Amino acid sequence: MDVCRQQIILTVALVLVTGSLAQVFSFGKCPSVQLKQNFQLGSYLGKWYENRRFFAIFEAFGSCVSANYSLKDDGHVKVVNQGYIKFLKKDNVAIGDAYAPDANEPAKLKVKFGSGPSGDYWVLDTDYDSYSVVYSCSGYGGVFKIEFSWILTRERNGLSDAKIQKLLQSMSSSGINVKRFSVTDQSNCPN
Ligand SMILES: *[C@@H]1O[C@H](CO)[C@@H](O)[C@H](O)[C@H]1NC(C)=O
Prior knowledge:
Oligomer: single chain
CATH class: Mainly Beta
Number of strands: 10
CATH architecture: Beta Barrel
Strand content: 35-45%
Radius of gyration: 16 Å
CATH topology: Lipocalin
Strand order of the largest sheet: 2-3-4-5-6-7-8-9
Bound molecules: 2-acetamido-2-deoxy-beta-D-glucopyranose
């Protein structure tokens, strides 16, 4: 493969790993969702694996995706997202910054990668040591909306199907269309 083409693929893959394409566009209003109550950022830090996410065009670029959250001196969170592009045998890393702008809503985080725009990262539900449900929705005049969502797990393949089904049911009953999820390939990972 020529260098230029490889560069383009890497750029696209980086965008995917940073989550910018884990978003979907649709008509209608944002659902009103419940956030994790008394969210404890300290217990949430550390490594998470991506179990599924909204909208993945190029599945092949985004396998083995993980995120590592650690506290910085300024109280913000350092975000290290990592993915693996199987057919290029290349690791892909993106470093970002997250924080909760409003102390009254600790589960509503803003995340930013490089000079890109900041995105919303709302923790709807987590038990801190096995799963996390992340979602956000931006509405535009009640006419259309842009949504992001991920289910993360502490172990690479650490959640039972029964538990996943429960989380999906709970999201559905909040009005989130879980059909938009695509499962992340976490098999044969080098990292
Ligand atoms: C996560 O990042 C922190 C801070 O950079 C590091 O100390 C820690 O080893 C990382 N954890 C994993 C599992 O990579």
